[in-house]
């Protein structure tokens, strides 16, 4: 009876839906990868023995490699999304241009990242891998920057919409609730973007973030991704 209750529990069904998605599995792996990045840095800073640090370094590297393999070919999805956004003439111009920039940035990042796959897996070493990785970081930074601009603009527009709402009317109350939900979603995305941008900025040495800081911000953005994907598969 207890086993049946666990097997058929709605939470188990939700979990199965979550892990059945590529995004769900990627977010879980990403959370572990960036936490391992932070924790291996922490162990190093606290002078722990190499035997304690090595397993976390392995988690960071191996999970990163698994994620690189899983996202191979995903660049096509973002090229298509950029084309769809460019063709959407009804969208707010600022949001349309930032959407195109974001999708092209992610597409460029994934294309350059794909170019490093054979080197990363050890199948075929390439002297160009480091250059491709740097270009990948540049595209990623561009994509995230466009997303940050879009979220800031969205929050500004929501503030303007809210100022016009008459909460004394029934429709105004509903509109106020819709604005609150959209604001929460936008703030979550903005927080995730600001956390994520530390990775390419650090990788390009544009900002001197250490592995501890990047690991923590990466873990936070990954947890936000897990939460959003969990809600989406509910």
Automatic annotation (TrEMBL):
Species this chain originates from: Trichocladium antarcticum
Cellular component GO terms, alphabetical: peroxisomal membrane
Subcellular compartments: Peroxisome membrane
GO terms under biological process: peroxisome fission
Classification via PANTHER family: PEROXIN 11, PEROXISOMAL BIOGENESIS FACTOR 11
Lineage, opening ranks: Eukaryota, Fungi, Dikarya, Ascomycota, Pezizomycotina
Keywords attached to this entry: Membrane, Peroxisome, Peroxisome biogenesis
Protein name: Peroxisomal biogenesis factor 11
